[in-house]
Amino acid sequence: MKSFSYTVQDPVGIHARPAGLLVKAAKEFADTEITIAKDGKVVKATQLMKLMGLGVKSGDTVTVTAEGTSEDAAIAAMEQFFQANL
């Protein structure tokens, strides 16, 4: 299991556009479960509505975890995605 924490910089937080892109990026790793946690709530990164339901705003810190066959590649891709888009 690999994980990292990230403080969201996007002024609007995780809203529809980046959430949709995040789900698409996470689905590329079908053999690895990617989750996002905030304030004790954990959701799969492939579930758009639950992801948006976390209510992540600018300045919030989330923990991204990948567990599975491709966890190294998945966590690297997620970290790059967060830095580029959020």
UniProtKB/TrEMBL annotation:
GO biological process terms on file: phosphoenolpyruvate-dependent sugar phosphotransferase system
Pfam families named in the record: PTS-HPr
Entry's localization field: Cytoplasm
GO cellular component: cytoplasm
Bilayer-spanning residue ranges: none
Keywords, comma-separated and alphabetical: Cytoplasm, Phosphotransferase system
Matching InterPro entries: HPr, HPr-like, HPr-like_sf, TonB_box_CS
Residue span(s) of domain HPr: 1-86
Name used for this protein in its record: Phosphocarrier, HPr family
The species this protein was found in: Pseudoflavonifractor capillosus ATCC 29799
